[in-house]
Amino acid sequence: MSDRTTVLVLGGGVGGVVAARTLRKMLPERHRVVIVDRERDHLFAPSLLWLMTGKRTPKQISRPLDRLARRVIEVIGGEISHIDPDTRRVRVSEHAHGDDPLSRRLGGVTRDWEADHLIVSLGVDLAPKTIPGLAEAGHNFYTLAGAETLRRALADFNGGRIVVLTATPAYKCPAAPYEAAMLLLDHCRRRGIGDSTKVDLYAAEPGPMGVTGPEVSSQVRRMVEDQAIAFHPEHQVTEVDTSAKTVAFSNGATASFDLLAFVPPHRAPQVIRDAGMVDDSGWVPVDRHTLETRFPAVYAIGDVTGIPLAMGKPLPKAGVFAERQAKVVAHNIVLAITGKGEPASFDGYGECFIETGAGKAGFGAGDFYAEPTPQITLHRPSRRWHLGKLLFEKNWFRRWL
Ligand SMILES: Cc1cc2nc3c(=O)[nH]c(=O)nc-3n(C[C@H](O)[C@H](O)[C@H](O)COP(=O)(O)OP(=O)(O)OC[C@H]3O[C@@H](n4cnc5c(N)ncnc54)[C@H](O)[C@@H]3O)c2cc1C
After folding, report:
1. Ligand 1 atom closest to Cα of 37?
2. Mean pLDDT to the nearest integer, 25-54
3. Cα–ligand 1 centroid distance for 160 (angstroms)
């Protein structure tokens, strides 16, 4: 047991922040906890859906990562350009510091870090450009910039056809595009343009939230269709014509739109692929309970991982899993460093709110590791679950940043 160890956390999103804060609470101060992210701010992504309809500002849904410094966590702003998982060496091109004239003139430095324990929580790379025309024609509401352009376009929208589409069958937060369709329509109704607005949801997947089983999937489909949203499953977008404002699908169908909102294709971050950490699934394989990778003292958590389930599909990518996995990994690293505590295990439990508009939300929860299929219960939309989501958002920043 070394006297002073360094735990390096890659990524200041959900998994990274929870891991760093949990480690810091439990580890004696002489041990270093370092977190690296290219972004200055931590973004609470679930609230992007409220930002796009004008219910939130960027400031309300993000916090500077620098705040973690008050908790004796070292915060490094920069691009992670190389990871050697065998030696746990990581190269970071640090951003120039705005208030340091020398740093501004020379640009940031590139530094190599060596970790005793490495936690990888780098999420996904979004790749809208892999579908011709998609990025130019539509709004990628999975990013802050895209949710903001959608909010602006929505303000100028005076009725017509809104198309929401998923560009691949698997993406993070499987409820989000369904919520987006319902919230967009709700927004138009509140503006008095509901009668002249039609919302169509084109999904690459066969149905909503397929991992949760046919019953929950059809319940979510009903939530969408009850709102008079037309649902078109198994429509894989191949191309978008920006000037004609039409979407082409692999089955030969086409759809015209006045406003296009989309979930882009996802893939593991380039730096992770270059590090040879992914398998044939395209994601980082881990022990499903400890989140250990095949490299000693290297853990991967959250969206970057690929965890196969008995039913044949992978564990969905969602913040709730990243958070719970981060706590497990932090506990086990503390145990390895200090010898204190009990081994922790990730149990596959997950839950999520499904915003349906009109101040209501549904709520699904259950055991995703259950075999042969996940055991999920979905509660009907009500005001109570919507209030639950508001509370969750408020507590997120209070608890972690
Ligand atoms: C619109 C929307 C709604 C959502 N709603 C929900 C919800 O209601 N419930 C839920 O559970 N989940 C939800 N999610 C999903 C949730 O946000 C993600 O699953 C979660 O953020 C994953 O955490 P993570 O730590 O794996 O990755 P992230 O939170 O994405 O963090 C990854 C971090 O790594 C950084 N990074 C990546 N590459 C590099 C690099 N090379 N150098 C430096 N930094 C890098 C990124 O800047 C980022 O900060 C939603 C997502 C979206 C987009």
Report:
1. 44
2. 97
3. 32
